Amino acid sequence: MINTGKWTPYILALLRIMAALLFLEHATMKFLQFPGPIQGVPYPLPALLLVAGAIEVITSALMLVGFQTRIAAFIASGEMAAAYFMCHTPYGFWPALNMGEGAILFCFIFLYIAFAGGGACTLDNARPPATA
């Protein structure tokens, strides 16, 4: 039988890094219009989207390198929950119809990372333990 448990921290780190990169892409769309502008959003951005973009830049950068990963993931999870209820549910209940699947997936992936930690290869793991 294959011991898959030894790979778990590395797969968790891969999930953390990929989710952070995809989350950062949403911020670059807001601030740099890269890889393209957000469809249907006026520029300059409304204040709420500026705050959302700032949260996305900060939390995705922290999660990418694995620094304060749990806190960053928890904040990002909350942002995605708020985004779903504010931006998607007005278009109906079902996520497949209101285009909210991404927000829900980000929310629960980040919630998982907030509780499981960042896995292997994090700055959090490189720091010496706190002394009392």
Automatic annotation (TrEMBL):
InterPro entries: DoxX (IPR032808), DoxX-like_oxidoreductase (IPR051907)
Record keywords, A-Z: Cell membrane, Membrane, Plasmid, Transmembrane, Transmembrane helix
TM stretches of this protein: 7-24, 44-64, 71-91, 103-123
Cellular-component GO terms for this entry: plasma membrane
Location(s), subcellular: Cell membrane
Main location: membrane
Membrane topology label: Multi-pass membrane protein
Entry's family note: Belongs to the DoxX family.
UniProt protein name: Hypothetical conserved protein
Native species: Rhizobium etli (strain ATCC 51251 / DSM 11541 / JCM 21823 / NBRC 15573 / CFN 42)
Classification lineage: Bacteria, Pseudomonadati, Pseudomonadota, Alphaproteobacteria, Hyphomicrobiales
